[in-house]
Amino acid sequence: MRLVVARVEDFPPGERRIVKAGARSIGVFRIEDRFFALRNRCPHQGGPLCHGRLSAWAVADLPGQVEMQGPPRLVACPWHGWEYDLETGQSFLGPGETRVKAYDASVARGDTLEDIPEAARAVGREPGPYVAETFPVYVDEDYVVVDV
Ligand code: FES
Q1: For residue 83, how far is its CA from the centre of ligand 1 (angstroms)?
Q2: Model pTM?
Q3: Residue 137: is its pLDDT beyond 60?
């Protein structure tokens, strides 16, 4: 199922959106011109992971000479601070713990997003037997979408 999150122009770099896909809560992040999506449930103890602070990779050539490298790539859970890679969901604390679910997030043209019944089923609604007359409506703008 493809979940429409927002128009690209309404989702500036550095922002995030928390969206629902059925019972799942998903955090969608825009970092520069890339989009990332993670399940908003920390594998450690169920914290609201996607509300946490973002940070870049920290690198150090020598002890005490730490530099932050590149744009933010990690999100830290607000409950106990475990960090997860935005792209893969991999944790870098708690060895042996499972990663958080990462979803494909991308940009799609509005005129490719027409399957409303499929989207409705994904949030627990079944189409009824009656169908009203409809007319084609075209949307040419770009939208951020998550494949869940
Ligand atoms: S619940 Fe997220 S770090 Fe503990």
Answers
A1: 9
A2: 0.79
A3: no
Say if CB 91 and CB 97 are below 8 A apart.
Answer: yes
Q: Is the CB of 44 under 6 A from ligand 1?
A: yes
What are the φ/ψ torsions at residue 21 (nearest 5 degrees)?
Answer: -130, 95
- Ligand 1 neighbourhood includes 77 CB (under 6 angstroms): yes
Tell me how far the alpha carbon of residue 42 lies from the centroid of ligand 1, in angstroms: 6
Shortest-distance atom of ligand 1 to CA 80? 3
Do residues 13 and 33 touch, judged by C-beta distance below 8 A? yes
How close is the Cα of 126 to the center of ligand 1, in Å? 35
3-class DSSP assignment, residue 117: helix
- pLDDT per residue over 42-84, tens digit each? 999 999 999 999 999 989 999 999 999 999 999 999 999 999 9
What is the C-alpha separation between 140 and 76, in angstroms, rounded? 36
Instruction: Give, rounded to a whole angstrom, the gap between the first and last alpha carbons of the chain.
Output: 5
